[in-house]
Predict the structure.
Amino acid sequence: MGSSAHEIQGHLKKYYMVFGALLVLTGVTVAVAEFHVSIGMAIVVALFVASIKGTLVACYFMHLMEEKSMLIWILALCALFFLMLLLVPMFTIGEQDAGLMERMRGLSPN
Amino acid sequence: MSATVIPYDVKPHPLTGMYNGKFGIWLFLASEIMLFGALFSTYVLLRVGAPEGTWPIAGSPTTRGDNILQVPLAALNTAFLITSSVTMVLAWANLKMGSFKKGQQFLLVTVLLAGAFLVVKYFEYNSKLHHYAVTFNEHFDRDGVESKSFKGLTQAGTEKTIHYLWGHVEETKKDADGAIQSYLFMPDHDTSHGGEGHEPKAVEIHPAEIARMTTFGPGGSSFLGCYFVITGLHGLHIVGGIVVMLWFLLTGSKMWKTQPDKYANRIECTGLYWHFVDLVWIFLFPVLYLL
């Protein structure tokens, strides 16, 4: 990244602006929780806001935007494996729930 | 013994475009993503597969973590970490601009904010470890205190009515041999299960009436197990960050006098780690507390 004293001086304002944005977005996350919206909406909003906050931290505080593409590709591969970690167990959930539904149908009404 | 010179510790490596230390910390962070990724995956698997009425703990009115966690404290901690990320990047920026004193001051503020995060976490953990969930063998009714109940479905698919109370143990009465005779139990004052909610009063509970008694600690439920493991691991990362920053606060002036660029680079690497710790919390906060 550009890291001469003059260039860094120019970045300072950006850091404060990102700081403000992060605090506002934290407020948005808490407010959504307080309004007790539906669980589906809460998940979408909370994870969307968290993703924006994470992107701001990575791009500006960690200067990821200014790094060479090789590092971006390494991290993209890492992100792909992270998603696989999250999604692979999901395929087993469907099977488990199907079994549970079968047993539920066998329950007597009382 | 001749000193080994590590190449590209200040100037960027022609292949990676960055000095070696920075490339190393990025690779370390990539491995950290997988570490926390495995724990997030575990959480999602347990969350989706939890029998109805058991998440985050048996008897919760909804499945959200804030039934048993304190959102204001977590929001305060989020503010602490976000602010510490800014002070960290300002520490590095000031060092790059040639101001060692300001750089060290911002580093000190970062350490203090990290410490504040741990203090809040201590109070959160402490309140959980002294909060109890008692499940009774059958409906409990004594001195005007009644157990709450819900019908859940076990993993085996059978229906089961759970009778329970949440609260605090005020006193444990023991006999001469040290065996527990009874607990003086103060139920929580809450209106979340309907009704007006009346002033709570302590009631005596005997061990023979109890099917299961647990704190809201790691063994309390699958959710609490996840909560303590993930936030505990994150907390250890905070401690690690504090140790490294204190080291640079105490020894930094020596390196700054001879190799200021190298010192600024080390603070940059510490900063990358610290921003990652902040980033993990940014996702932990909504996932554990709000969903």
